[in-house]
Amino acid sequence: MNLCYWEYKSWLSNIDFTIVGSGIVGLNCAFHLKKQFPKAKILVLERGVFPQGASTKNAGFACFGSMSEVLSDLKQHSEEEVCQLVQKRWEGIQLLRETLGDHPMDYQNYGGGHEIFLKDQLHLYEDCLENLNRVNTLLNSVFGKDAFLVHPNSFKFKGVHENYITNPFESQINTGKMMKALVAKVQNSGVIILNAIGVDSYQENIDHVVVKTGQFEFKTNKLFIATNGFASQLIGETVKPARAQVLITKPIENLSIKGTFHLDEGYYYFRNIDNRILLGGGRNLDFQGEETTSFGETNLIQNRLEEILRTIILPNTPMEIDLRWSGIMGMGNQKKPIVKQLANNVYCGVRMGGMGIAIGSLVGKELANLLK
Ligand SMILES: Cc1cc2nc3c(=O)[nH]c(=O)nc-3n(C[C@H](O)[C@H](O)[C@H](O)COP(=O)(O)OP(=O)(O)OC[C@H]3O[C@@H](n4cnc5c(N)ncnc54)[C@H](O)[C@@H]3O)c2cc1C
Predict the structure, then answer these.
(1) Cβ 65 under 6 angstroms from ligand 1
(2) Pair 124, 265: CB distance under 8 Å
(3) Count of beta carbons in the 10 Å neighbourhood of residue 149
(4) pLDDT digits (tens, 9 = 90+) for 306-326
């Protein structure tokens, strides 16, 4: 694409900071850079017409990890590390609320997040109940109160144990509203966002970086990579893509289910939104097939989601599926994100795992703070 003098001059010259990716991390990075350097010219480049990764596709749980997830983490990490992970999620959500306010993203707490246990998961259920006090004591420094409580099956899910294990602090947001508000906030602060521009490669020079996109090339003083599940296309860090599939029902009359729910060790999750049920998960049915950066849905996973919906969540309620979609997450063998300097003028904030809404604001801020 041949750019004219005005286009170069106004959009692409004298760029101080360029951020690749306009997900929650890239946008927060841009926002905090602008706060630190109010006069800086900051550009965000986004490959999609909308942010096209996970931040606009997710389930919108403002969550900290369910009981079985914390227990599973305790098998791989020390108590101190698990406590730090949960603390980060807690701080991340507080920062997101502080940045945008609760109303613009429709932040709601409907009595918390509930982990429900399938009848054939007796061992897991008992293990979680037995460890309740241990985990509550461990996480007291984060929440100041018990993080997990026993709660009866008040929504009458079928084929599950009589109690949920509930985290009363877990809430939900409207993902679309959150991202729209974040984009507006960043643009209002004076940052330029260009959509439908994919970065193909970059070349590091002594005092600047040359960025090559599908359409044009330009120079920037510093480059920040916030492309999460797509990170390995640009940088050498080990981030594996992980696709997550979702469906949503049409509105259901008199829907009484409200809250966020985790099922089968967190491999499935569902919530209410606008009198509908949004349900996602099932990656464990085909880990290998879902390790992809291609969007799409498969019969294997979509059929299982529908089965769970019809037999466990809404066994006696007629409903129809309205939409199905997928998003791409960035995973690794550790739960900690990678926030670091890669070269003199290149930085990255990637590998958000399944909790990027919880930690994304904080990671974006940490990425910007690498310049401090
Ligand atoms: C279905 C689903 C449900 C989820 N549910 C939850 C949840 O309930 N709670 C929670 O905390 N987390 C959840 N997550 C995870 C969370 O959404 C992610 O961890 C988070 O959004 C990651 O944010 P990010 O900014 O790092 O990455 P992304 O949002 O993926 O942003 C990266 C951006 O980079 C762009 N990009 C990539 N390569 C290039 C390139 N070369 N040039 C230009 N642009 C590029 C992409 O288009 C994308 O917009 C879920 C994820 C999915 C998919």
Answers:
(1) no
(2) yes
(3) 16
(4) 999 999 999 999 999 999 999
C-alpha to C-alpha distance for 2 and 73, rounded to whole angstroms: 52
Q: Tell me the whole-structure pTM to 2 decimals.
A: 0.97
Which atom of ligand 1 lies at the shortest distance from residue 51's CA? 49
Q: What are phi and psi of 33, to 5 degrees?
A: -65, -40
Give helix 356-369 / helix 79-100 axis angle, nearest 10°: 80
Tokens (6 digits) for 273: 């939104």
Residue 243 in contact with ligand 1 by CB distance below 6 A: no
Which tokens go with 39? 């006069």
CB 301 within 8 A of CB 282: yes
Q: What is the DSSP string of 51-75?
A: --SSTTTS--EE----HHHHHHHHH
The predicted-structure confidence for 99-139, as pLDDT tens digits, reads as follows 999 999 999 999 999 999 999 999 999 999 999 999 999 99
Nearest to 279 by CA among 288, 271, 287: 271
Q: Which of 56, 141, 42, 43 lies closest to 356 in space, CA to CA?
A: 56
pLDDT digits (tens, 9 = 90+) for 253-298: 999 999 999 999 899 999 999 999 999 999 999 999 999 999 999 9
The residue among 218, 159, 236, 288 whose CA lies nearest residue 12 is 218
Quick check: CB of 232 below 6 Å from ligand 1? no
Structure tokens given for 95: 């920062």
Q: Is 331 in the pocket of ligand 1 (CB under 6 A)?
A: no
Give me 101's structure tokens.
């306010």
How far, in Å, from the CA of 292 to the mean position of ligand 1? 14
Q: What digits encode the pLDDT tens for the residues 32-52?
A: 999 999 999 999 999 999 999
